[in-house]
Amino acid sequence: MASQSDNPPNPPNSSNSSQPSPQPKSLENDLRKLLYDERFYDISLKCSDNIILNACKNILASRTEVFNEYIFDKSKKNNANQQRQQLEFDKVNSIAMKLILEYLYTSKNEKETLNVSNVVEVYYAAIFFKLDDLQNDIIEYTMKILREGDKTDETITYGTEELNELAKKLLSEFIEKFSLDVNNDMSKLLVNWVAKIQLFPDNADGDSLSLMGLQHLLNKTFETKDQFATYELTLFEYTLVKTKHIILEEKTGSKKIYDMNYDSNVIERIKDRLMPLLPFIDLRIIDPDDVVLKLEPLKLFPQEMITDAYRYRIEKKHELLQPMRGRITFRWKYEFEGKSKNPPSPPIITNNGFTVEVDSNIKNYQSIMGDLVIKGNGIHKWDISVENLNDTIYIGICGIDEKFDKPGDKTYQYGWALGSDGYVYNKRDWKRNNGKFTVGDVVNITVDMTAKHCYFSINNQTFYEAIGYAFPDELYPFVSLNKGGKLHIK
Protein backbone atom coordinates (compact mmCIF):
# COMPACT_ATOMS: atom_id res chain seq x y z
CA MET A 1 0.00 0.00 0.00
CA ALA A 2 1.43 3.32 -1.01
CA SER A 3 2.16 5.83 1.71
CA GLN A 4 0.97 9.42 1.63
CA SER A 5 4.48 10.51 0.70
CA ASP A 6 4.23 8.44 -2.49
CA ASN A 7 1.48 10.74 -3.85
CA PRO A 8 2.56 13.58 -6.11
CA PRO A 9 2.76 16.91 -4.31
CA ASN A 10 0.01 19.47 -4.82
CA PRO A 11 0.91 22.27 -7.22
CA PRO A 12 1.73 25.62 -5.62
CA ASN A 13 -1.23 27.72 -4.40
CA SER A 14 -3.64 24.82 -4.90
CA SER A 15 -5.89 23.08 -2.44
CA ASN A 16 -7.58 19.72 -2.33
CA SER A 17 -10.99 21.35 -2.84
CA SER A 18 -12.25 21.09 -6.40
CA GLN A 19 -12.24 24.34 -8.38
CA PRO A 20 -13.32 24.95 -11.96
CA SER A 21 -10.46 24.98 -14.39
CA PRO A 22 -9.90 28.29 -16.14
CA GLN A 23 -11.52 28.36 -19.56
CA PRO A 24 -9.04 28.20 -22.44
CA LYS A 25 -8.73 31.37 -24.43
CA SER A 26 -10.75 31.55 -27.61
CA LEU A 27 -8.58 31.50 -30.72
CA GLU A 28 -11.26 33.48 -32.53
CA ASN A 29 -11.22 36.26 -29.93
CA ASP A 30 -7.42 36.31 -29.82
CA LEU A 31 -7.25 36.69 -33.58
CA ARG A 32 -9.85 39.45 -33.46
CA LYS A 33 -7.69 41.30 -30.90
CA LEU A 34 -4.74 40.80 -33.21
CA LEU A 35 -6.62 42.64 -35.93
CA TYR A 36 -6.77 45.77 -33.76
CA ASP A 37 -3.26 45.53 -32.22
CA GLU A 38 -0.92 47.87 -34.08
CA ARG A 39 2.15 45.96 -32.86
CA PHE A 40 1.39 43.33 -35.49
CA TYR A 41 0.78 45.66 -38.43
CA ASP A 42 3.21 45.24 -41.31
CA ILE A 43 1.11 46.20 -44.33
CA SER A 44 -1.33 49.01 -45.15
CA LEU A 45 -4.40 48.88 -47.38
CA LYS A 46 -5.52 52.06 -49.13
CA CYS A 47 -9.23 51.82 -49.91
CA SER A 48 -11.32 53.53 -52.58
CA ASP A 49 -12.45 56.23 -50.12
CA ASN A 50 -8.75 57.05 -49.41
CA ILE A 51 -8.92 55.59 -45.90
CA ILE A 52 -5.89 53.47 -45.00
CA LEU A 53 -6.27 50.33 -42.89
CA ASN A 54 -3.49 48.17 -41.46
CA ALA A 55 -3.12 44.43 -41.10
CA CYS A 56 -0.74 41.49 -40.83
CA LYS A 57 0.44 40.35 -44.25
CA ASN A 58 1.04 36.73 -43.20
CA ILE A 59 -2.58 36.29 -42.13
CA LEU A 60 -3.93 37.94 -45.27
CA ALA A 61 -1.68 35.97 -47.61
CA SER A 62 -2.47 32.65 -45.94
CA ARG A 63 -6.23 33.22 -46.00
CA THR A 64 -6.82 34.12 -49.64
CA GLU A 65 -4.83 33.70 -52.82
CA VAL A 66 -5.85 37.19 -53.95
CA PHE A 67 -4.02 38.84 -51.06
CA ASN A 68 -1.14 36.41 -51.46
CA GLU A 69 -0.61 37.55 -55.05
CA TYR A 70 -0.99 41.21 -54.14
CA ILE A 71 1.47 41.01 -51.26
CA PHE A 72 4.13 38.89 -52.88
CA ASP A 73 3.51 40.38 -56.34
CA LYS A 74 4.37 37.48 -58.60
CA SER A 75 4.20 39.73 -61.65
CA LYS A 76 7.64 41.14 -60.87
CA LYS A 77 9.86 38.57 -62.54
CA ASN A 78 13.09 40.20 -61.46
CA ASN A 79 12.27 39.66 -57.79
CA ALA A 80 9.55 37.10 -57.24
CA ASN A 81 9.79 37.42 -53.45
CA GLN A 82 9.54 41.19 -53.31
CA GLN A 83 6.87 42.17 -50.82
CA ARG A 84 4.67 45.22 -51.21
CA GLN A 85 4.16 47.34 -48.10
CA GLN A 86 1.02 49.18 -49.25
CA LEU A 87 -1.79 47.87 -51.42
CA GLU A 88 -4.35 50.07 -53.16
CA PHE A 89 -7.94 49.06 -53.95
CA ASP A 90 -9.88 51.50 -56.11
CA LYS A 91 -13.21 49.63 -55.92
CA VAL A 92 -13.28 48.39 -52.32
CA ASN A 93 -14.12 51.01 -49.70
CA SER A 94 -12.96 50.97 -46.09
CA ILE A 95 -16.34 49.86 -44.71
CA ALA A 96 -16.28 46.72 -46.82
CA MET A 97 -12.56 46.17 -46.20
CA LYS A 98 -13.03 46.22 -42.41
CA LEU A 99 -15.62 43.50 -42.67
CA ILE A 100 -13.40 41.50 -45.04
CA LEU A 101 -10.45 41.77 -42.64
CA GLU A 102 -12.46 40.57 -39.65
CA TYR A 103 -13.73 37.65 -41.71
CA LEU A 104 -10.21 36.73 -42.85
CA TYR A 105 -8.89 36.88 -39.30
CA THR A 106 -11.74 35.03 -37.55
CA SER A 107 -14.05 33.48 -40.22
CA LYS A 108 -16.87 35.46 -38.61
CA ASN A 109 -18.22 38.98 -38.44
CA GLU A 110 -19.25 40.26 -35.05
CA LYS A 111 -17.75 43.69 -34.59
CA GLU A 112 -18.11 44.69 -38.24
CA THR A 113 -21.65 43.71 -39.21
CA LEU A 114 -23.67 43.61 -42.40
CA ASN A 115 -26.50 46.08 -42.87
CA VAL A 116 -28.59 47.54 -45.67
CA SER A 117 -26.13 50.33 -46.37
CA ASN A 118 -23.05 48.12 -46.84
CA VAL A 119 -24.34 44.78 -48.11
CA VAL A 120 -23.74 45.53 -51.81
CA GLU A 121 -20.23 46.87 -51.18
CA VAL A 122 -19.30 43.88 -49.03
CA TYR A 123 -20.70 41.44 -51.60
CA TYR A 124 -18.54 43.08 -54.27
CA ALA A 125 -15.49 42.78 -52.01
CA ALA A 126 -16.27 39.13 -51.21
CA ILE A 127 -16.31 38.36 -54.94
CA PHE A 128 -13.14 40.39 -55.50
CA PHE A 129 -11.28 38.41 -52.83
CA LYS A 130 -12.90 35.11 -53.93
CA LEU A 131 -14.48 34.36 -50.55
CA ASP A 132 -17.22 31.92 -51.52
CA ASP A 133 -18.49 31.18 -48.01
CA LEU A 134 -18.81 34.88 -47.23
CA GLN A 135 -20.71 35.40 -50.49
CA ASN A 136 -23.19 32.72 -49.42
CA ASP A 137 -23.57 34.35 -45.99
CA ILE A 138 -24.31 37.70 -47.65
CA ILE A 139 -26.95 36.16 -49.93
CA GLU A 140 -28.67 34.60 -46.92
CA TYR A 141 -28.55 37.92 -45.08
CA THR A 142 -29.95 39.77 -48.10
CA MET A 143 -32.85 37.32 -48.34
CA LYS A 144 -33.57 37.95 -44.66
CA ILE A 145 -33.65 41.74 -44.94
CA LEU A 146 -35.82 41.52 -48.07
CA ARG A 147 -38.35 39.56 -46.01
CA GLU A 148 -38.04 41.40 -42.70
CA GLY A 149 -36.26 44.69 -43.31
CA ASP A 150 -33.16 46.00 -41.56
CA LYS A 151 -33.67 45.24 -37.86
CA THR A 152 -30.67 47.41 -36.94
CA ASP A 153 -32.56 50.55 -38.02
CA GLU A 154 -35.28 51.12 -35.43
CA THR A 155 -36.45 54.32 -37.15
CA ILE A 156 -38.15 52.37 -39.96
CA THR A 157 -41.20 50.15 -39.63
CA TYR A 158 -41.12 47.72 -42.53
CA GLY A 159 -44.46 46.99 -44.14
CA THR A 160 -44.98 45.65 -47.65
CA GLU A 161 -44.40 49.05 -49.27
CA GLU A 162 -41.16 49.66 -47.36
CA LEU A 163 -39.87 46.18 -48.21
CA ASN A 164 -40.66 46.75 -51.89
CA GLU A 165 -38.75 50.02 -51.89
CA LEU A 166 -35.84 48.34 -50.13
CA ALA A 167 -35.64 45.71 -52.88
CA LYS A 168 -35.68 48.38 -55.61
CA LYS A 169 -33.01 50.38 -53.77
CA LEU A 170 -30.71 47.37 -53.40
CA LEU A 171 -31.09 46.44 -57.08
CA SER A 172 -30.23 50.02 -58.08
CA GLU A 173 -27.16 50.11 -55.82
CA PHE A 174 -26.11 46.68 -57.04
CA ILE A 175 -26.11 47.69 -60.72
CA GLU A 176 -24.29 50.93 -59.96
CA LYS A 177 -21.55 48.92 -58.24
CA PHE A 178 -21.37 46.05 -60.73
CA SER A 179 -22.53 46.32 -64.36
CA LEU A 180 -25.65 45.91 -66.48
CA ASP A 181 -24.57 42.53 -67.86
CA VAL A 182 -23.54 41.02 -64.52
CA ASN A 183 -24.90 37.56 -63.73
CA ASN A 184 -24.31 36.31 -60.19
CA ASP A 185 -26.36 35.10 -57.24
CA MET A 186 -27.10 38.60 -55.95
CA SER A 187 -28.33 39.69 -59.38
CA LYS A 188 -30.64 36.68 -59.58
CA LEU A 189 -31.98 37.25 -56.08
CA LEU A 190 -32.73 40.96 -56.52
CA VAL A 191 -34.15 40.62 -60.04
CA ASN A 192 -36.41 37.78 -58.94
CA TRP A 193 -37.58 39.83 -55.96
CA VAL A 194 -38.31 43.06 -57.85
CA ALA A 195 -39.98 41.11 -60.68
CA LYS A 196 -42.70 40.11 -58.20
CA ILE A 197 -43.44 43.75 -57.33
CA GLN A 198 -46.09 45.53 -59.38
CA LEU A 199 -44.55 48.58 -61.05
CA PHE A 200 -47.12 51.36 -61.36
CA PRO A 201 -46.61 54.42 -63.61
CA ASP A 202 -48.00 56.60 -60.80
CA ASN A 203 -44.99 55.63 -58.65
CA ALA A 204 -42.32 55.68 -61.36
CA ASP A 205 -41.22 59.26 -60.70
CA GLY A 206 -40.88 58.79 -56.96
CA ASP A 207 -39.74 55.25 -56.16
CA SER A 208 -36.20 54.01 -55.52
CA LEU A 209 -35.62 51.97 -58.69
CA SER A 210 -33.01 53.64 -60.88
CA LEU A 211 -33.17 53.62 -64.67
CA MET A 212 -30.11 51.34 -64.79
CA GLY A 213 -31.72 49.03 -62.25
CA LEU A 214 -34.86 48.97 -64.39
CA GLN A 215 -32.83 48.19 -67.51
CA HIS A 216 -31.17 45.25 -65.76
CA LEU A 217 -34.59 43.99 -64.63
CA LEU A 218 -36.05 44.25 -68.15
CA ASN A 219 -33.03 42.52 -69.66
CA LYS A 220 -32.88 39.62 -67.21
CA THR A 221 -36.63 38.93 -67.30
CA PHE A 222 -37.15 39.24 -71.07
CA GLU A 223 -38.90 36.02 -72.16
CA THR A 224 -38.62 34.72 -68.59
CA LYS A 225 -40.53 31.68 -67.37
CA ASP A 226 -40.39 32.89 -63.77
CA GLN A 227 -42.92 34.92 -61.81
CA PHE A 228 -43.69 38.48 -62.86
CA ALA A 229 -46.26 40.96 -61.57
CA THR A 230 -46.59 43.78 -64.14
CA TYR A 231 -48.40 43.80 -67.48
CA GLU A 232 -46.11 44.53 -70.42
CA LEU A 233 -47.94 47.70 -71.48
CA THR A 234 -47.88 48.96 -67.89
CA LEU A 235 -44.18 48.11 -67.75
CA PHE A 236 -43.54 50.35 -70.75
CA GLU A 237 -45.65 53.14 -69.23
CA TYR A 238 -43.65 52.87 -66.01
CA THR A 239 -40.41 53.05 -68.02
CA LEU A 240 -41.56 56.09 -69.99
CA VAL A 241 -42.73 58.02 -66.91
CA LYS A 242 -39.44 57.31 -65.10
CA THR A 243 -37.39 58.42 -68.11
CA LYS A 244 -39.39 61.63 -68.55
CA HIS A 245 -38.99 62.38 -64.85
CA ILE A 246 -35.20 62.09 -65.14
CA ILE A 247 -35.03 64.32 -68.23
CA LEU A 248 -37.60 66.91 -67.14
CA GLU A 249 -36.59 66.82 -63.46
CA GLU A 250 -40.23 67.02 -62.48
CA LYS A 251 -43.02 64.60 -61.66
CA THR A 252 -45.22 63.86 -64.65
CA GLY A 253 -47.43 61.12 -63.21
CA SER A 254 -49.55 58.65 -65.14
CA LYS A 255 -51.98 61.32 -66.43
CA LYS A 256 -49.39 62.49 -68.94
CA ILE A 257 -47.88 59.15 -69.91
CA TYR A 258 -48.39 59.58 -73.64
CA ASP A 259 -47.97 63.34 -73.72
CA MET A 260 -44.88 64.12 -75.81
CA ASN A 261 -45.64 67.79 -76.35
CA TYR A 262 -42.08 68.95 -75.71
CA ASP A 263 -39.53 70.80 -77.80
CA SER A 264 -37.38 68.72 -80.13
CA ASN A 265 -34.32 68.85 -77.87
CA VAL A 266 -36.22 67.35 -74.91
CA ILE A 267 -37.76 64.66 -77.10
CA GLU A 268 -34.33 63.64 -78.40
CA ARG A 269 -32.99 63.42 -74.85
CA ILE A 270 -35.94 61.22 -73.84
CA LYS A 271 -35.32 58.99 -76.85
CA ASP A 272 -31.61 58.72 -76.04
CA ARG A 273 -32.30 57.61 -72.47
CA LEU A 274 -35.00 55.18 -73.58
CA MET A 275 -33.01 53.62 -76.41
CA PRO A 276 -31.12 51.02 -74.29
CA LEU A 277 -34.36 49.91 -72.59
CA LEU A 278 -36.75 49.61 -75.53
CA PRO A 279 -35.32 46.32 -76.92
CA PHE A 280 -36.41 44.68 -73.66
CA ILE A 281 -40.05 45.77 -73.96
CA ASP A 282 -41.85 42.83 -75.58
CA LEU A 283 -44.20 44.45 -78.11
CA ARG A 284 -45.27 40.99 -79.28
CA ILE A 285 -47.40 40.38 -76.18
CA ILE A 286 -48.95 43.85 -76.01
CA ASP A 287 -52.43 44.05 -77.53
CA PRO A 288 -52.05 45.14 -81.20
CA ASP A 289 -54.70 47.82 -80.71
CA ASP A 290 -52.55 49.38 -77.98
CA VAL A 291 -49.49 49.21 -80.21
CA VAL A 292 -51.35 51.02 -83.00
CA LEU A 293 -53.20 53.59 -80.91
CA LYS A 294 -50.76 54.27 -78.05
CA LEU A 295 -47.21 53.24 -78.92
CA GLU A 296 -46.72 53.90 -82.62
CA PRO A 297 -47.78 57.58 -82.40
CA LEU A 298 -44.97 58.19 -79.87
CA LYS A 299 -42.37 57.42 -82.56
CA LEU A 300 -40.05 56.00 -79.91
CA PHE A 301 -39.75 52.37 -81.01
CA PRO A 302 -37.65 51.47 -84.06
CA GLN A 303 -39.90 50.55 -86.97
CA GLU A 304 -38.25 47.13 -87.12
CA MET A 305 -39.53 46.32 -83.62
CA ILE A 306 -43.07 47.37 -84.60
CA THR A 307 -42.95 45.27 -87.77
CA ASP A 308 -41.58 42.24 -85.93
CA ALA A 309 -44.40 42.50 -83.37
CA TYR A 310 -47.06 42.55 -86.11
CA ARG A 311 -45.40 39.63 -87.91
CA TYR A 312 -45.28 37.63 -84.68
CA ARG A 313 -48.98 38.26 -84.07
CA ILE A 314 -49.83 37.01 -87.55
CA GLU A 315 -47.76 33.86 -87.00
CA LYS A 316 -49.50 33.25 -83.65
CA LYS A 317 -52.99 34.28 -84.76
CA HIS A 318 -54.45 30.94 -83.65
CA GLU A 319 -52.82 31.14 -80.23
CA LEU A 320 -53.81 33.13 -77.18
CA LEU A 321 -50.93 35.18 -75.77
CA GLN A 322 -50.51 36.34 -72.20
CA PRO A 323 -50.07 40.13 -71.96
CA MET A 324 -47.53 39.72 -69.15
CA ARG A 325 -44.07 38.17 -69.30
CA GLY A 326 -43.36 35.07 -67.21
CA ARG A 327 -45.86 33.49 -64.84
CA ILE A 328 -48.47 35.81 -63.38
CA THR A 329 -48.04 36.47 -59.69
CA PHE A 330 -49.66 38.76 -57.13
CA ARG A 331 -49.99 39.24 -53.38
CA TRP A 332 -52.92 38.71 -51.09
CA LYS A 333 -54.76 41.58 -49.44
CA TYR A 334 -57.71 41.62 -47.07
CA GLU A 335 -60.32 44.30 -46.48
CA PHE A 336 -63.08 43.73 -43.94
CA GLU A 337 -66.32 45.20 -45.27
CA GLY A 338 -68.69 44.35 -42.43
CA LYS A 339 -70.14 46.74 -39.87
CA SER A 340 -69.60 44.54 -36.82
CA LYS A 341 -68.09 46.17 -33.74
CA ASN A 342 -66.21 42.92 -33.17
CA PRO A 343 -64.85 41.97 -36.59
CA PRO A 344 -63.33 38.49 -37.00
CA SER A 345 -59.60 37.96 -36.73
CA PRO A 346 -58.11 38.96 -40.09
CA PRO A 347 -56.38 36.36 -42.25
CA ILE A 348 -52.67 35.88 -41.63
CA ILE A 349 -50.75 37.06 -44.69
CA THR A 350 -47.07 36.07 -44.64
CA ASN A 351 -44.12 35.36 -46.94
CA ASN A 352 -44.19 38.94 -48.27
CA GLY A 353 -47.84 38.63 -49.19
CA PHE A 354 -47.70 35.35 -51.13
CA THR A 355 -49.09 33.06 -48.40
CA VAL A 356 -52.46 33.42 -46.67
CA GLU A 357 -54.11 31.42 -43.91
CA VAL A 358 -56.96 31.83 -41.46
CA ASP A 359 -57.10 30.89 -37.81
CA SER A 360 -58.21 27.32 -37.12
CA ASN A 361 -61.02 28.68 -34.92
CA ILE A 362 -62.54 30.73 -37.76
CA LYS A 363 -65.72 28.91 -38.83
CA ASN A 364 -67.22 31.57 -41.10
CA TYR A 365 -65.60 31.95 -44.50
CA GLN A 366 -63.24 34.83 -45.18
CA SER A 367 -62.65 35.95 -48.76
CA ILE A 368 -59.19 37.27 -49.57
CA MET A 369 -58.45 38.94 -52.89
CA GLY A 370 -55.28 39.25 -54.92
CA ASP A 371 -53.87 42.72 -55.54
CA LEU A 372 -53.65 42.24 -59.32
CA VAL A 373 -56.44 43.44 -61.62
CA ILE A 374 -56.94 40.94 -64.44
CA LYS A 375 -57.78 42.98 -67.54
CA GLY A 376 -57.38 43.33 -71.29
CA ASN A 377 -57.41 40.46 -73.77
CA GLY A 378 -55.52 37.21 -74.01
CA ILE A 379 -54.83 34.38 -71.61
CA HIS A 380 -53.99 34.80 -67.92
CA LYS A 381 -52.60 31.93 -65.83
CA TRP A 382 -51.56 31.54 -62.21
CA ASP A 383 -51.03 28.67 -59.76
CA ILE A 384 -51.99 28.29 -56.10
CA SER A 385 -50.63 25.51 -53.89
CA VAL A 386 -52.72 24.09 -51.05
CA GLU A 387 -50.80 23.93 -47.77
CA ASN A 388 -53.64 23.18 -45.36
CA LEU A 389 -57.40 22.65 -45.35
CA ASN A 390 -59.86 21.29 -42.80
CA ASP A 391 -63.04 22.17 -44.67
CA THR A 392 -64.05 23.03 -48.23
CA ILE A 393 -62.12 26.00 -49.60
CA TYR A 394 -62.78 27.97 -52.79
CA ILE A 395 -60.36 29.36 -55.38
CA GLY A 396 -61.42 31.53 -58.29
CA ILE A 397 -62.08 34.96 -59.78
CA CYS A 398 -64.54 37.75 -59.14
CA GLY A 399 -65.55 41.05 -60.73
CA ILE A 400 -63.54 44.04 -59.56
CA ASP A 401 -66.59 45.57 -57.84
CA GLU A 402 -68.01 42.27 -56.58
CA LYS A 403 -67.41 39.93 -53.67
CA PHE A 404 -67.45 36.15 -53.43
CA ASP A 405 -69.20 34.54 -50.46
CA LYS A 406 -69.71 30.92 -49.50
CA PRO A 407 -71.92 29.10 -52.06
CA GLY A 408 -75.44 28.56 -50.79
CA ASP A 409 -75.50 31.74 -48.70
CA LYS A 410 -78.17 34.28 -49.54
CA THR A 411 -75.47 36.83 -50.22
CA TYR A 412 -73.67 34.57 -52.69
CA GLN A 413 -74.23 35.94 -56.17
CA TYR A 414 -70.85 36.68 -57.71
CA GLY A 415 -67.70 34.96 -58.84
CA TRP A 416 -66.42 31.81 -60.53
CA ALA A 417 -64.73 29.29 -58.26
CA LEU A 418 -63.48 25.74 -57.91
CA GLY A 419 -64.19 24.15 -54.54
CA SER A 420 -62.02 21.50 -52.93
CA ASP A 421 -65.23 19.43 -52.77
CA GLY A 422 -65.04 18.84 -56.52
CA TYR A 423 -67.70 21.34 -57.63
CA VAL A 424 -67.42 24.35 -59.91
CA TYR A 425 -69.40 27.38 -58.76
CA ASN A 426 -70.64 30.20 -60.97
CA LYS A 427 -72.87 32.81 -59.36
CA ARG A 428 -75.80 30.87 -57.84
CA ASP A 429 -75.16 27.69 -59.82
CA TRP A 430 -72.79 24.79 -59.25
CA LYS A 431 -71.89 21.66 -61.15
CA ARG A 432 -69.99 18.48 -60.34
CA ASN A 433 -66.43 18.77 -61.62
CA ASN A 434 -64.53 15.75 -60.22
CA GLY A 435 -61.63 18.13 -59.69
CA LYS A 436 -61.22 17.61 -55.95
CA PHE A 437 -58.05 18.96 -54.42
CA THR A 438 -56.35 18.60 -51.06
CA VAL A 439 -53.12 19.41 -49.22
CA GLY A 440 -50.12 19.26 -51.55
CA ASP A 441 -52.10 19.86 -54.74
CA VAL A 442 -51.64 22.83 -57.05
CA VAL A 443 -54.75 24.52 -58.45
CA ASN A 444 -54.19 26.06 -61.89
CA ILE A 445 -56.41 28.97 -62.89
CA THR A 446 -56.62 30.01 -66.55
CA VAL A 447 -58.73 32.99 -67.58
CA ASP A 448 -59.33 33.75 -71.26
CA MET A 449 -60.32 37.42 -71.24
CA THR A 450 -60.88 37.41 -75.00
CA ALA A 451 -63.48 34.61 -75.08
CA LYS A 452 -64.61 35.15 -71.46
CA HIS A 453 -63.79 31.57 -70.46
CA CYS A 454 -62.42 30.34 -67.14
CA TYR A 455 -60.61 27.01 -66.75
CA PHE A 456 -59.75 25.21 -63.51
CA SER A 457 -57.17 22.44 -63.32
CA ILE A 458 -55.59 20.33 -60.59
CA ASN A 459 -51.87 19.65 -60.98
CA ASN A 460 -52.18 20.75 -64.65
CA GLN A 461 -55.03 18.32 -65.37
CA THR A 462 -58.15 20.14 -66.56
CA PHE A 463 -61.47 18.62 -65.48
CA TYR A 464 -64.02 21.23 -66.50
CA GLU A 465 -64.41 24.46 -68.43
CA ALA A 466 -66.52 27.03 -66.60
CA ILE A 467 -68.01 29.54 -69.03
CA GLY A 468 -68.50 33.04 -67.70
CA TYR A 469 -71.03 34.54 -70.04
CA ALA A 470 -70.99 37.87 -68.25
CA PHE A 471 -67.37 38.38 -67.31
CA PRO A 472 -66.69 41.96 -66.25
CA ASP A 473 -63.85 43.69 -68.08
CA GLU A 474 -61.79 43.66 -64.90
CA LEU A 475 -61.43 40.77 -62.45
CA TYR A 476 -59.40 39.91 -59.40
CA PRO A 477 -58.20 36.53 -58.07
CA PHE A 478 -59.68 35.43 -54.75
CA VAL A 479 -59.79 32.56 -52.27
CA SER A 480 -62.35 31.84 -49.57
CA LEU A 481 -61.04 30.05 -46.45
CA ASN A 482 -62.03 28.92 -42.97
CA LYS A 483 -60.85 26.56 -40.19
CA GLY A 484 -57.11 26.93 -40.71
CA GLY A 485 -57.10 26.91 -44.52
CA LYS A 486 -53.73 27.94 -45.96
CA LEU A 487 -52.70 28.69 -49.56
CA HIS A 488 -49.59 29.94 -51.35
CA ILE A 489 -49.14 31.62 -54.74
CA LYS A 490 -46.59 29.65 -56.71
Task: Tell me briefly what this model is.
This protein is an alpha+beta fold.
Q: What does this 3D model show about the protein?
A:
The chain is α+β, with helices and mostly antiparallel strands and 490 residues long. The chain is built from 13 helices and 19 strands. The N and C termini lie far apart (79 Å). The protein has helices spanning 27-35, 57-63, 65-72, 94-106, 119-128, 132-148, 160-177, 185-195, 211-221, 232-248, 264-274, 288-295, 303-315, and strands at 43-46, 52-55, 86-88, 227-228, 327-328, 332-333, 348-350, 355-357, 366-370, 379-388, 394-399, 416-419, 423-426, 429-432, 442-448, 453-458, 461-467, 475-481, 486-489. Strands 6-9-18-11-12-13-14 form a seven-stranded antiparallel sheet, with no helix packed on it. The protein has a seven-stranded antiparallel sheet with strand order 7-8-19-10-15-16-17, with no helix packed on it. The chain has a three-stranded mixed sheet with strand order 2-1-3. The longest helix has 18 residues, at 160-177. Helices cover 31% and strands 18% of the residues. It is globular. It folds into three domains: 27-148, Potassium Channel Kv1.1, Chain A, CATH 3.30.710.10; 160-315; 330-489, Jelly Rolls (Sandwich).
